[in-house]
């Protein structure tokens, strides 16, 4: 049996990261409310430090390191937001960080991770296994490996965004959360089940990679090939052991969104709310829009998970 994190861990994480993570704004839009026939509250993690909610989980996990762990350092494998979240949290806490990234990772992401003080180790994604490299580094140098989602401290940290949202706006009827490996969704579910017990909780993943939906409906973790989608933060191949147990117990359903729907949301956020949101960050609102008829007159929370998107790619989406 896994020792699953609880709401108490989310509350403890909130205390631990207070003053370090941004308390991100909750935004509303008359246009969104009119379109939806509902009151929509957007929790804007695109304004989190390093541009995504992942700072919360990373900061919580690293803040719990003991002296030995702090001295030996942290290792993470990621080419995305988790890498930057670990590098920045480690820098703020004075802990050395090693990030394992593919040789062909976007130069901007490698540069951002190095700028936050991370020591980048590259690997060939076609011939080498990053998890093995990460684990070997951990064993050889006594470093602590912090995975991007399947870790109790990461889950608890991610849950602090939904906690802040509900504490700020009051109870919700529905909450829409972007879903990759499930750290954000399981943490949000722990918070929402405690603070808004009747709230329906929905995870939303890219239609091309609906392993979470298949897992939720079949009752066991389904593995898929890396999905082809513009939602690069949700190109995970499977849920985690911890995240799946919590999702199975506390989440009401898993929905999907197409790339076209994500682009339409990206445009909506840019045009109507003057905000830059990355494709993955649009998943929640994209699914809420499709469920409009069931949300009439309701109070709806949407977690906007991040805003890290290359400007050339972003302008191509908006122009397209
Ligand atoms: C990582 C990430 C997700 C998915 O989070 P999980 O905890 O893996 O489900 C969603 N949006 C953004 C912006 C991310 O960086």
TrEMBL record:
SUPFAM superfamilies: Tryptophan synthase beta subunit-like PLP-dependent enzymes. Its cofactor is pyridoxal 5'-phosphate. It comes from the Bacteria. Residues 21-306 form the Tryptophan synthase beta chain-like PALP domain. Keywords: Lyase, Pyridoxal phosphate. GO terms for molecular function: ATP binding; D-serine ammonia-lyase activity; L-serine ammonia-lyase activity; magnesium ion binding; pyridoxal phosphate binding; serine racemase activity; threonine racemase activity. NCBIfam families: PRK07048.1. Belongs to the serine/threonine dehydratase family. This is L-threonine ammonia-lyase.
């Amino acid at each position: 049996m896994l020792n699953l994190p609880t709401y108490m861990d989310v509350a403890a994480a909130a205390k631990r990261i207070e003053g370090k993570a941004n308390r991100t704004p909750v935004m509303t839009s008359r246009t969104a409310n009119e379109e939806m026939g509902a009151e929509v509250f957007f929790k804007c993690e695109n304004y989190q430090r390093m541009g995504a909610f992942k700072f919360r989980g990373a900061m919580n996990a690293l803040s719990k390191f003991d002296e030995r762990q702090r001295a030996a350092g942290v290792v993470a494998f990621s080419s995305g937001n988790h890498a930057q979240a670990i590098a920045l949290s480690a820098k703020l806490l004075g802990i050395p960080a090693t990030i394992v990234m593919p040789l062909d990772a976007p130069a901007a992401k490698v540069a951002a991770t190095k700028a936050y003080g991370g020591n980048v180790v590259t690997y060939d994604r076609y011939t080498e296994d990053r998890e093995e490299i990460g684990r070997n580094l951990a064993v050889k140098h006594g470093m602590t490996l912090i995975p991007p989602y399947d870790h109790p401290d990461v889950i608890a940290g991610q849950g602090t965004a939904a906690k802040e949202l509900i504490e700020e706006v009051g109870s919700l009827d529905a909450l829409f959360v972007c879903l990759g490996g499930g750290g954000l969704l399981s943490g949000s579910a722990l918070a929402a089940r405690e603070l808004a017990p009747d709230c329906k909780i929905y995870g939303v993943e890219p239609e091309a990679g609906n392993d979470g939906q298949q897992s939720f409906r079949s009752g066991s973790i389904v593995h898929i090939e890396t999905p082809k989608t513009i939602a690069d933060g949700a190109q995970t191949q499977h849920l985690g052991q911890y995240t799946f147990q919590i999702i199975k117990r506390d989440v009401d359903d898993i929905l999907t969104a197409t790339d076209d729907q994500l682009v339409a949301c990206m445009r909506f956020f840019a045009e109507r709310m003057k905000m830059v949101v990355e494709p993955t960050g649009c998943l929640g609102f994209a699914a809420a829009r499709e469920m409009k008829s069931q949300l009439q007159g309701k109070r709806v929370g949407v977690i906007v998970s991040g805003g890290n998107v290359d400007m050339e790619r972003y302008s191509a989406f908006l122009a397209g």
